[in-house]
Write a structure and sequence with these properties.
- The chain has 239 residues and is an alpha/beta fold.
- 27% of the residues lie in helices and 15% in strands.
- The protein is built from six helices and nine strands, in the order E-H-H-E-H-E-E-H-E-H-H-E-E-E-E.
- Strands 1, 2, 3, 4, 5, 8 and 9 form a seven-stranded parallel sheet that branches. Strands 6-7 form a two-stranded antiparallel ribbon.
- It is flat and about 45 Å long.
- 35% of the residues are buried.
């Protein structure tokens, strides 16, 4: 089993803390650090939080939530072996062309250590404030995954979807990893059969690992990381 540190970007939010956690994580052999995302949050959350029994989330307005791509880029420059992952990036809130560019660049500069974890998002207020209809988040995510993979391919990319359109576009650099950056889909619900999902894996965000999905179009739950595992890593370097 490979063990990663979840929620790292909200627990270690200064340069000194990042350097300390990277040093200890690589020393003890952790596989990866995982960053989370909310671009902003409402003062009063009314959307039910899907990971607690009462639907409440405490303290989200006080949490320091660094931008995950910037945070992982900083970590890439001070680490040697750690994989650099999101758990998760809220994909429907981002344009896939920018995501493809950012993650190909991160993968190239880190020597092929990137893992793109994506999800559809749960916070209605955040998404609608960004102009994204909450009801469209799942199909936007599916289309964006296909678009990102297309931009990482060997041929010029053409996309003619419901939300995104372009013809014969080229995005460089390409990811360092053969086949592109691995994409994992995080969430609390069993994946449904959807076009384009045969090339991604799922990352359960809490509880016990989900049983492998089976049948045509199902997503194998295959990333070898214990979901929800957090390691006891001191926030500051030892004196």
């Amino acid at each position: 089993m490979k063990i990663g540190l979840m929620f790292a970007s909200s627990a270690y939010t200064t340069a000194e803390e990042c350097a300390a956690v990277v040093e200890v994580a690589e020393e003890v052999g952790l596989e990866s650090l995982w960053a989370v995302e909310h671009v902003f949050v409402p003062k009063e959350v009314t959307t039910p939080y899907p990971y607690t029994e009462d639907g409440q989330i405490a303290g989200i307005g006080d949490a320091v939530l660094c931008d995950p791509v910037v945070w992982l880029s900083f970590v890439a420059g001070i680490s040697r072996t750690l994989k650099l992952a999101t758990g998760i990036l809220i994909l429907p809130q981002r344009h896939p062309a920018y995501v493809a560019k950012e993650w190909a660049t991160l993968d190239r500069l880190s020597g092929g250590r990137a893992i793109l974890g994506v999800g559809i998002g749960w916070l209605r207020e955040e998404m609608e404030a960004l102009g994204i209809p909450f009801s469209e988040r799942a199909p936007r995510t599916d289309e964006s995954i296909l678009a990102i993979r297309s931009l990482w391919g060997d041929e010029p990319s053409s996309v003619d979807g419901r939300f995104h359109h372009w013809d014969e576009m080229i995005s460089n650099p390409r990811p360092a990893q053969s086949g592109g950056v691995p994409i994992v889909v995080g969430g609390h619900a069993r994946p449904r059969p959807r076009p384009g999902r045969d090339h991604v894996r799922c990352l359960p965000t809490h509880g016990r690992p989900a049983a492998p999905a089976r049948g045509p179009g199902r997503v194998p739950c295959g990333h070898p990381l214990a979901p929800g595992v957090q390691a006891a890593v001191p926030p500051r370097a030892r004196g």
